[in-house]
Design brief:
elongated, 9 helices
Length: 139
């Protein structure tokens, strides 16, 4: 039995640091550089492997990543996925109708409509130019 199944409610703080770092597009080297000379990519890797992280280090990392310490301490990916699944897989008719009605146009029809509008504008421009030529001929 692995440690993940033994402690289902335990949040892995190191893994959460990794998730936040990746969401922000930071590499381990960049986080190490921001933490100071004592840090290296290898040390960040070891930090991200730890289940529980010391408060002072957690506070430093949170400040650098600009996320609340509590977010790193309490973020639970499974709970977040459950919320997302519940939200988007809801059988609430009002939300499903809203999604259906939002995207009910044919892109080809839209292209044809734009082409016809463009054609009308060219015809108006051509008529205007013909009027100018006629005015100049009459002078």
């Amino acid at each position: 039995m692995n440690s993940h199944t033994e402690k289902p409610n335990q949040v892995h703080q190191g893994r959460n640091i990794k998730r936040f770092r990746e969401m922000l597009g930071w590499k381990q080297e960049a986080l190490a550089y921001a933490l100071g000379e004592d840090w290296s990519q290898k040390r960040i890797s070891l930090l991200e492997a730890k289940e529980t992280i010391e408060e002072d280090i957690l506070a430093q990392v949170a400040a650098i990543l600009k996320v609340p310490v509590e977010s790193i301490k309490n973020f639970d990916e499974e709970a977040a996925i459950n919320v997302i699944n519940t939200t988007f897989n809801s059988h609430d008719n009002s939300t499903s109708i809203a999604y259906q009605s939002t995207f009910n146009f044919n892109p080809i029809d839209k292209i044809v409509e734009l082409f016809e509008e463009k054609e009308k504008l060219y015809e108006q421009l051509l008529a205007s130019e013909r009027e100018k030529v006629e005015i100049l001929r009459n002078k």
